[in-house]
Predict the structure.
Amino acid sequence: MVIEMANSEKKMVRLDYRAYLADIEKLYDTTNEEVAKEAGIHNEKYTYAPMAYIVGSNKLFPALEEAIEKAEVGVETEVLIPSEDAAGVRNPKLIEIYPMRDFFKQEINPYPGLQVTLGNRTGTIMSVGAGRVKVDFNSPLAGHDLLYKFTVTEILSDPTEKAKAIVEVNFGSSDGFKFAFSDVRIAVTLPEITKFHQEWPVARFKVVTDMREAFGIDVIKFIEVWASAKKDAPKEKVSEEKAPEEKAPEEKPAE
């Protein structure tokens, strides 16, 4: 199935996947809730559903990116990636020892397996004893061959569905967001929750990056609506998916 993309727009798909540390046959990530429960890695804070992905955005390992690009909808694909082509080999220099007091100052009770952030780095505590804590700053995937089993469940071609998927990936929910598209910009009308949600400022930049990548459009405009509640005020009818079209700025002729 081939989808033609206009201009520099990129294909966007949804993936159902299972990811394994192949050398020890351990599942470490999945989009399937039942599979996660069976493997003992279920996370109640995570919404299990096929993941939206922009093909060609190069956010995944090259071998996995290539396999997704070639995959057919509804057909399961397996990709085995050697450690040197995945997260790389483990670096013993990234294992460091810290005094226990450094953790107590941050009100952290250290124990093996706990992920901690020290400075600008995130690591995993390996051991605790004799007033010292050993922390591994290697990626949890380092030194492991990786096995991915994935299925492309659908190709997203509708602009609104693509935009919603991008917001969901970066913010968790697209409820209340509205989108309007033109050849030069995407206008995003924001819901009330973004005015007060502490994660939105960071998510906003990720949404901009992904929308530029997916649609091949540079200008992303965010619209905040602040309306006071007045009695007997007429209610404005707003389309669910279509905001007023915006005209492109006129270009001045070169002198």
The chain has three domains: 7-87+142-157, 92-136, 158-249.
